[in-house]
Amino acid sequence: MRTSPHCVIPVLLLLIGAAGCQKPAKQQPAGGSGQGSGQTMARGGSGSGAGPAAGQGSGSGSAAVEAKDIDSKDILARTETAPEVQVKHVLLAWNGMPAPRGLDPRAAKRTNAETATLAQDIAAKLKANPDAIDDLAKQYSEDQGSASTGEPYTVKPSSRFVQQFKDLALRLKEKEVGIVKTMFGYHVIVRVPPPPPDPLESSDVMARTPDTGTVYVQQLLISWKDTMLAKSPQGDPRAKERTKADADKLVKEVMDKARAPKADMNALMKQYSEDPSSKDSARVNEITPDMPINEQFENFKKLVLRLKVGEVGAVKTSLGWHIVKRVPPPPPDPLESAAILKREPVTQSAKVKHILLGWKEVHAPGDTKGEKRDRAALDKLVKETVAKLAKGAKIEPLMAELSADPGSASDGKSYDVTPTAGLVPPFKNLSLRLKVGEVGVVKSDFGIHIIQRVE
Hints:
- This protein is of the alpha+beta class.
- Helix content is 28%, strand content 18%.
- It contains 17 helices and 14 strands.
- The chain has helices at residues 11-14, 73-76, 112-128, 133-140, 144-149, 163-169, 203-206, 228-231, 237-240, 244-258, 265-272, 298-304, 338-341, 368-372, 375-390, 395-402, 425-431, and strands spanning 7-10, 36-38, 85-92, 153-155, 177-182, 185-192, 215-222, 285-287, 312-317, 320-327, 350-357, 415-417, 439-444, 447-453.
- The radius of gyration is 23 Å and the shape is globular.
């Protein structure tokens, strides 16, 4: 499913307009992928959907008017690249270019020539004073995700940014400035030093060797007025007036409560968390080492994979403060195909089709049927549907009738599943254990998946 599969960390689901789980591309099952937490942890580089986002391809697109070439060719010609860099940028588009995610009103008033001149002027100012990047980004950049937060992007060769953006970023020296054109416009990029860890972050935990298996966590989010989440329509009213200093003070208080011997994480989430997708549900998130995640949230994943069961840690992202507790694996759902899930994988590559069914407590975003269905009705529907498939019923009509996965329900499309596919772990785990033609059931954060392997 496209809408939910890519978002595994709930808050990212929210930020789809703010940062994360973009609308399903046709090959991603809802609830099937394990990308990031919502709008922000998902793929793509910018919170507004304008920046050097990934998944958009590496081409620059064919503008209606030929764009002026102002790329920093001297830097791009270098053969030596860094393994990882931190960069900030100013993004400028212009009227007439095919903007993949919409054109900023300022860009709509500028010609390409005017935009090229502005980009060169900003680059000159940054060369004179690289530390002016935050002010210039706030004033000019059309990537609101990075401009509003001042957070740098971490860029590595494997990062899912458009190729031209990566090509320049990885060749910059610290505090050096360059320009490159992509399908989003001109990027004026400055490489910045790695930011020092915030004193509140669990740096001792982050220094450990990561876990190599699946980790289960609950998290609560505390934001402040300058964060991407607070500025979004989904932002909590409490965060919209809160300063960073006030957020830090609150985080200390909540951390102390979360670490208490008889702490109730569910109650703390309900009272303090500003992640509207999980604060009331006490959602447990399943995180794996190979789970793709937006580069802005690498530290979230880094912390999660290093916590011990029962331990609490804190990490800061562009969404705000995440207070995270590692919890034991939840018990299997009675509907799940326990015998199949106990098998070793029978394949490294499978094609599957699925029916996603939710209920009041667990459902995909926008699943209006699921949010009204009680658990008894769900159990009955799942058993009836599995029985129909066992008697030879075609899955495609049932997908169209029942499934809450908008990425595959209407057209009966299949998903390609491999061990490294960007799908939520439960979906992937069951799919790779099914034999061709076999049907199984598994639960994820998005509901119950009835999966049939077709190849």
